Description:
- This protein is mainly alpha-helical.
- The chain is 51% helix and 11% strand.
Amino acid sequence: MPANLKQEARAELQAKLEAGLQEMGLQITAEQQHKLLEYVALIYKWNQVHNLTAVREPLDMITLHILDSLSVLPYVDCKYLLDVGAGAGLPSIPLAICLPDLQVTAIDAVQKKVSFMRQVKAQLGLGNFNVIHGRIEEQEVP
């Protein structure tokens, strides 16, 4: 996890994530948990400069962003997912992390949010996650 979060905060984030997953009855790998925490650290870092989300505190991000995004996990039964107006990549990035066979595409018209999602894709090695800069009504439909 990036150094912008102190060791104590990292342990607290991990504990909150694990407790939330258990309460929701979700089982994900340790690697997926690590990537979710890396993602929170990246949101926290970028949010200080780029105002990606109104949620400022990493502990709140676990509940309001990560666990909220993962609440649909048991119901995702498809091969492709499109997140329109993805913002900071919610719920698309947590779903891409936890469902590696799901092909996820996120689209947003705001360049700073697209740049952030592309950075997350590269840093976390999300081969199943694609980002498009633009508006949905301007996209070609195959």
